[in-house]
Each structure stands twice: as C-alpha cells, then as structure tokens.
C-alpha cells in the first residue's frame, strides 16, 4: 500500500523531487507511536519541499525497487517472530541497501533483529540479519520510561524506552548516543544507547522519536536526497513547537 502525503510541498529548492519512504512491517512492528515517526519524517521532507510517498511493506509483499529511506518500528517478541522469516528472505537485499548508503531508522524490535541475534528470556534464538555488529539477550527486568541521551551528531535525543532485551555492541558499529543521562539505553552495564553503521540508525527510543528529534529526520532526508539527486538544500523550518515539546518532554520524570 502506498500513501501519498497530501498538499503542495513548501516552496523551495527541492521542489519537483520525490522521496520514497519504505515502512517495514507496519502491521506487526508498530507500537508506542512508531507510525508517527513515518508520518513525521514524511512531513519534514514535505516541509523541505519534496513530494513524498510512503510504501507499507508487510510479510509476503513484493519488495519495491526504488526506495530512498527505510524505517521500521518495534513490537512484542511475538511480532518479531511473525516477521522473522520474511526479514531473512530480504536480508541480502537489505544488507546491500545498507552498504550502498540507503538511510534507515529501525526502532527497538527491528533494531534488535538488525543485529546478529536476539536470545529471548525463554532461550529462543531469533536470528538477526547482522547489519549491526550487535547481539541482544532477553533480561529479567523491563527497562521502561522516558529517556534522554547525548549524541555527537544529533545533540540531546529525547524519547521513551520499553524493552527487556539488553543489547551489546561489537566493534563493527558505534552507539547512536554515547551517554544516557536519564534512563537505561542498550543495557544496564554500559552508558550508551542505539547503534550506527553506514547510514543506518538503530535505537530503543519510541514515543515517537522523530517529532521531538527533527535533526534525525533531517539527517535521513539529507542522505536520501544526496544519494538520489546529488544535493540537498535544506529549507528553513520553524521549530518553535518542536522546541517546546522537547523542553516539556525533557522535564518528564523517568
Ligand atoms: N520484544 C523486545 C524487548 O522487549 C522489543 C520490544 C519493543 O520493540 N518495544 O526487548
């Protein structure tokens, strides 16, 4: 299914250009406002002057050829089990797209499955597709609540985490944020959160992430535009409401 973002894009240097966002597994992997990330990303691209198509990809669908940004959300362990076989059927293609520089954002359950494996608390092993040099082990405790973290490229990132999986990074990827200042992050023993490799970002932050962290949207849009059109000229976007939302979210108790 394809959704087209309605309305004329803001006037600007990116007019006449189209970005195609592929939303991975919205039926099974879409909780705590993850769909809101897709919408927010699409609206941000629209505000930069692009026409935007959102393509839903669910198990068994034909994987579209021309995709500029890939985004996917979280789910229960059961949702992860449902999509696992289909994810593996597409793993070589997804890995190739990642290596070629396609920008991607995967959250929580899909972040875990973009790693090498997720071993649940019950001892079931869900094999990941290994885009991230990372593995996840089901923990006894839920790490749940509002989270704030400091990153080199995106400054302060604000969101909401809810996972029991504990993720450990290998040397083949770097954290999204080196220091969690409120909350837990990848695991209880280390201070970092999320992962990055090529132009792929994995994170535990839901809530939705992108409306409160437009720098991450801008990064995904910029990478996509440069790959497709060789250039990106950002529009000036009024972030007054975003900054109010960020200030309010930062004050929320854990
Ligand atoms: N089932 C996974 C965990 O609890 C992922 C949860 C999620 O996507 N929110 O660790």
From TrEMBL:
The keyword Protein transport does not apply. It catalyses: L-glutamine + H2O = L-glutamate + NH4(+); beta-D-GlcNAc-(1->4)-Mur2Ac(oyl-L-Ala-gamma-D-Glu-L-Lys-D-Ala-D-Ala)-di-trans,octa-cis-undecaprenyl diphosphate + L-glutamine + ATP + H2O = beta-D-GlcNAc-(1->4)-Mur2Ac(oyl-L-Ala-D-isoglutaminyl-L-Lys-D-Ala-D-Ala)-di-trans,octa-cis-undecaprenyl diphosphate + L-glutamate + ADP + phosphate + H(+). Gene3D superfamilies: 3.40.50.880. Keywords: Cell shape, Cell wall biogenesis/degradation, Glutamine amidotransferase, Hydrolase, Ligase, Peptidoglycan synthesis. Residues 21-213 form the CobB/CobQ-like glutamine amidotransferase domain. Substrate binds at residue 142. Its EC number is 6.3.5.13, 3.5.1.2. Coiled coil: none annotated. HAMAP family: Lipid_II_synth_GatD. The lipid II isoglutaminyl synthase complex catalyzes the formation of alpha-D-isoglutamine in the cell wall lipid II stem peptide. The GatD subunit catalyzes the hydrolysis of glutamine to glutamate and ammonia. The resulting ammonia molecule is channeled to the active site of MurT. This is Lipid II isoglutaminyl synthase (glutamine-hydrolyzing) subunit GatD. It comes from Rothia aeria F0474. The lineage of its organism: Bacteria, Bacillati, Actinomycetota, Actinomycetes, Micrococcales. The gene is gatD.
């Amino acid at each position: 299914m394809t959704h087209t973002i309605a309305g004329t894009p803001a006037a600007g240097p990116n007019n006449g250009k189209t970005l195609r966002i592929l939303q991975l597994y919205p039926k099974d992997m879409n909780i705590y406002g993850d769909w809101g990330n897709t919408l927010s990303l699409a609206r941000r691209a629209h505000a930069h002057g692009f026409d935007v198509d959102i393509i839903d990809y669910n198990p068994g669908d034909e994987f579209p050829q021309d995709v500029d940004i890939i985004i996917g959300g979280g789910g229960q362990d059961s949702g992860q089990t449902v999509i696992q076989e289909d994810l593996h059927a597409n793993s070589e293609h997804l890995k190739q797209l990642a290596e070629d520089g396609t920008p991607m954002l995967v959250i929580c359950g899909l972040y875990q499955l973009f790693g090498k494996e997720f071993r649940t608390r019950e001892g079931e092993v869900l094999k990941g597709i290994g885009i991230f040099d990372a593995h996840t082990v089901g923990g006894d405790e839920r790490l749940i609540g509002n989270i704030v973290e400091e990153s080199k490229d995106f400054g302060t990132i604000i969101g909401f985490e809810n996972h029991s999986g504990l993720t450990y990074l290998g040397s083949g990827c770097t954290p999204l944020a080196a220091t969690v200042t409120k909350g837990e992050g990848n695991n209880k023993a280390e201070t970092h959160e999320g992962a990055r490799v090529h132009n792929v970002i994995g994170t535990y932050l839901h809530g939705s992430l992108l409306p409160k962290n437009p720098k991450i949207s801008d990064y995904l849009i910029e990478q996509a535009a440069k790959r497709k059109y060789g250039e990106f000229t950002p529009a000036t976007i009024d972030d007054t409401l975003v900054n109010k939302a960020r200030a309010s979210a930062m004050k929320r108790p854990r």
